[in-house]
Amino acid sequence: MLKFKHILVLASVLYLIPAAYAGPVPRSTKEPVDFVNPNIGNISHMLVPTYPTTHLPNSMMRVFPVRHDYTSNRLGGLPLIVTHHRETSGFNFYPYQGGETDIKPTMSLSYDQEDITPYRFKEYLDEANIAADFAPSHQSAVYNITFEKQGAPFLVFHCHEGEIKASGNVITGRQDLGSNTSVYIYAVTSVTPTKTGAAIKGGGVDWNAPLSNSLVLSYPAGTEKIGLRYGVSFISVEQAKKNLDREITTFDVNAIAEAGRKIWNEALGKIAVSGASDKETTVFYTSLYRTYERPINISEDGQYFSASDGKVHSDEGRSFYTDDWTWDTYRAAHPLRVLINKKGENDILNSFILMSEQTGKTWFPTFPGISGEQHCMNSNHGIASIADAYAKGLRDFDLARAYQACKASIETKSLLPWSYAPSGELDDFFKKNGYLPALKPGEKETVAEVNGWEKRQPIAVTLGTSYDEWCLSQIAGDLGKTDDASHYLKASYNYRNVFNPKTGFFHPKDKDGNFIEPMDYKMGGGPGAREYYDENNGYVYRWDVQHNIGDLVSLVGSDQKFINALEDMFNTGYPTARWDFYATLPDHTGNVGMFSMANEPAFHIPYLYNYAGAPWRTQKRIRSLLDEWFRNDLMGIPGDEDGGGMTAFVVFSEMGFYPVTPGSPTYNIGSPCFPSVKMDLGNGKFFEIKAQNASFTNKYIQSAKLNGKPLDQPWFSHSDIANGGVLELVMGPVANKTWGIASPPPSAAPMPIK
Question: Which residues, in sequence order, are CB contacts of 593 under 8 Å at separation 6+?
């Protein structure tokens, strides 16, 4: 997870919704979008909250309130476009009535009666008695602003780095986003202003100001409503106008909102769930909505601006996507799209291949953003998304070109965390010795390329790269590159080099091959454990061998020792006061013992009992974690959600299965929350899960059938469902401890332990 270090102050907000500002008339039957609650998680347990984002699925146009989180008492204006996931609006504006001397470039606004859905956003500015109503399309949007007081109304626009101007009722602007990237706006108001000027920082308006990053428009006294429709573009103002003209020609917010509602119901309706309470259904569809926030489609009339080379390109008839953090999303968000949005996933991966070539470095992106590759976190897990998609039958991207970029990301780019530099001395050490060396306690860093805050993260890098190299071996095999496949399969066992058989943990080693001592697996490694691990402690990274859990069972010693180690993690409490623990490990929230439900490297862990002959423990653990940490309330997300990274885990787990190993065409079975799940795989094919008697109490699998045949294993293959299928489960309140114990999910090819 990409993090920002905030400690949140909790407060409460009381909603008083008068009839005059009531939401839409309730419909007789709830549709999927009606179950979405964008406020889930808007108050964070520690770091970054979720934001109640209004947008269409995977679209450029995104907005959320201009504030820190749900507890913020005032707004910093009204948003026009959020260009990057969970960052501030590229432009914002505020409506105003009153004396000109009080007008400033930005203003703090008191608000109430907020009403947010995926397709509509309403605010009531209670001190000003002004109502705002918003609805988006893909690259454009419309506002209606209603003024209740007497006197001339104003609209005041602002951009942070750029310029904004008006001519008649047309507003144009540019906001510079850093690197070589800008976002442009073209807007039209329903009323022509009487005069325009620029807001003065100390207060007042310069009506003769030259071009500025501030714009004030004055409208005739008695104007009660002003419509604002606008388009955005990453190419030009002219293209922003084309986007607006193509999508929105009306100031009717209702019409645009209804169109958006239909689009959302189609997207969310790809998975139909039924039979559980509104609580589970709300958590499910809200989680599914979160997975559609990114990456975003930035194709505009057959072309797109690429920050990778600063040029406008033809999209050659297929959508171009960016804004993704693959360290978070390769685990479940990409595999989910493989099932329900194959075209989208093909286009996303094709976009990443193009980015790698446009940079001139030929490195596969890991954190592609609007302003270019950020390369945050560690490892190169975009490789996993290529391997996973191809293993599951997606073919509309060039695997050979992808492989060249993925291979270069391992061979010629540095493996150091948060680095976008060529390989260096620590990479040479890794290639020679099969692990990244840690510093001894008190030893100073001598490698200039190591990030001073992020440190070496030697265990996280060693384990993560072992997995990436396994994924490379799979791709190489698919391409018939047998030598490469063999080489990377062997390299995928490098995790063994840092396994400590005496403790059963992955343990950092120094450059001489000695384990670092003393070692504290709970809190060792400094802030975020980054000197050894990353954001999580040794208890979480103990299981970070996604591609070869079967071998990990052998390393630990036996099925029972493996189960005991899992149970020990869940049963081991804080080693110190909670405030002291979180002062060191603020990302390690959502704790059950030393397990962290809040951070991505832990997501697959509850399913690992399946590999050691105890599927019933996976069923129990998954249901308890869902109940404890994913709720229909303001703190119903245990950690940084990261735009689908966490909520895709919820979508899969509530359905009853999970892709523990992206790159392997297999799924682990958990415990479904719904008696009925029907997933639209496209082309008229459906995968159904029928869980007889499933409920909060009936969480244990008694027996199973897959496509009409008895199933006595806690996993199934993608090929079993790729052309449609039915998984039938009989559920009960007491565990059937013999079901599925003899056939663990597959792991990487076996290799003798050295």
Answer: 539, 569, 570, 571, 572, 573
Cα separations (Å) of 506 from 241, 437, 475, 514, 556?
A: 56, 13, 27, 13, 11
Per-residue pLDDT, averaged over 388-403, amounts to 98
H-run or E-run covering 327: helix 326-329
C-alpha 573/C-alpha 580 separation (Å) is: 13
45 and 125: one domain? Answer: no
Are residue 123 and residue 213 in the same domain, yes or no?
A: yes
Q: Is residue 462 part of a domain?
A: no
Flag whether pLDDT at 664 surpasses 60: yes
392 CB burial (10 A radius; 0-12, 13-18, 19+): buried
CB-based burial label for 130 (10 Å; 0-12, 13-18, 19+): buried
CATH number at residue 620: 3.30.2080.10
Q: Which amino acid is at 51?
A: Y
Instruction: State which residues form the domain around 622.
Output: 31-53+274-298+604-754
| Number of structural domains found in the chain | 2
Note the pLDDT tens digit of each residue in 409-419: 999 999 999 99
Whether residues 260 and 278 share a domain: the answer is no
Structure tokens at 585: 């490990």
Q: Is the pLDDT of residue 14 over 50?
A: no
- Comparing CA positions, the residue from 690, 692, 679 lying closest to residue 723 is 679
Q: Are residues 259 and 279 in the same domain?
A: no
Q: Are residues 289 and 141 in the same domain?
A: no
Q: What is the rounded average pLDDT for all residues in the chain?
A: 94
User: Tell me, what's the pLDDT at 3?
Assistant: 41
Residues 6+ apart with CB under 8 A from 362: 356, 404, 405, 408
* 38 and 102 both lie in a single domain: no
In a domain, 446, yes or no: no
CATH number, residue 194: 2.70.98.10
pLDDT of 12 over the 60 cut: no
- Between residues 87 and 460, the one the model is more confident about: 460
Mean pLDDT of 142-167: 95
Query: Do both 39 and 187 map to the same domain?
Result: no
Residues 6+ apart with CB under 8 A from 186: 170, 171, 172, 230, 231, 233, 237, 238, 240, 241, 243, 244
Q: Provide the pLDDT for residue 21.
A: 36
Mark whether 254 and 291 lie in a shared domain: no
Residue 679 domain flag: yes
**pLDDT tens by residue, 30-87:** 999 999 999 999 999 999 999 999 999 999 999 999 999 999 999 999 999 999 998 8
